[in-house]
Amino acid sequence: MRSVITLFAALSALATSAIAAPATPCYDTDWSRMSNVRGTVVRSVDGDTARILIGQNEYSVRFQFIDTPETQYMGKSQGIWGDRAHEHLDRLLPPRTVVLLKFSKGERCDKYGRLLATVFRGNVNINLQMAADGFAVNYCIWPNDCPEYVRYVHYNVINRRGMFNGSVMLPYDWRVQVSNRQHEKYVGNMQTKHVFRPENARKVPIAYRVFFMTPEEIRAPYRQVE
Description:
Layout: H1 2-20, H2 28-31, E1 36-44, E2 49-54, E3 57-63, E4 65-67, H3 80-92, E5 98-102, E6 115-121, E7 124-125, H4 126-132, E8 137-141, H5 150-158, H6 171-178, E9 186-189, E10 194-196, E11 209-212, E12 223-224
Parallel strand pairs: 3-6, 8-11, 10-12
Antiparallel strand pairs: 1-2, 1-5, 2-3, 4-8, 5-6, 6-7, 9-10, 9-11
C-alpha cells in the first residue's frame, strides 16, 4: 500500500512540475525564415495563449491579432469574461490537438518570449473563431491590419454580444489602467486611414482599429491627422 501511495505522490509531483515548467523562450532568429510550423496543444493558458509542443520543445504561443479578457495580470483578473474566454479556447483546442501555426509579417516573438502566430485546427482559424464567437477583440499591430476580423468584431460590438455586452473593459484598456500607465500606441482607422494620437483612440471604432508602436511607423495609405 505504501509503495502505491509513494508512486501516486511521485506521479503527482511530476505532473505538477510539468505544468509549472517554463516554456522554451522564443527568438526571432529561430523562426524568421519559416512561414508555418505544426505542433500539438499541451494546454491553454488563457483565452489568447496556449502551450504548444513543437518538436521536442514546449512554447508559449500568443494568438496573434486578438486580445481576450485577462485571467491573470499583475495579480488581478477581469473576472468571469476572462474565465469564459479561457474555457472557450479549451473547448476549441483541447490537449493533444494537432495544430498549424502560421506566421505573419513582422516579429515572430513578443517581448515576453512568446511565439506569435495564427493557430489553425484543420481549416479553422482559431484566432478568428475566438473573435467571431464574442470572446476576443481584434488587436492588430502594424504592419498587420488584419481586416478579416473587422466584420465579426463590428457585429459583436453593435449587438452587444459576448464580451461587448458592457460588463467588461477592453483588455488593452484594462491593462493600461491596472498598470497605471498611459496609452502609448498610435491608433489608425482601417476605413479612413487616419491615425490618431494614443489619447484619442476613442475616435476610432473598436473593430476598425490598427495600432502603430511609434509615429515613425505610420506609412501610406495611413496618415497621422492628430
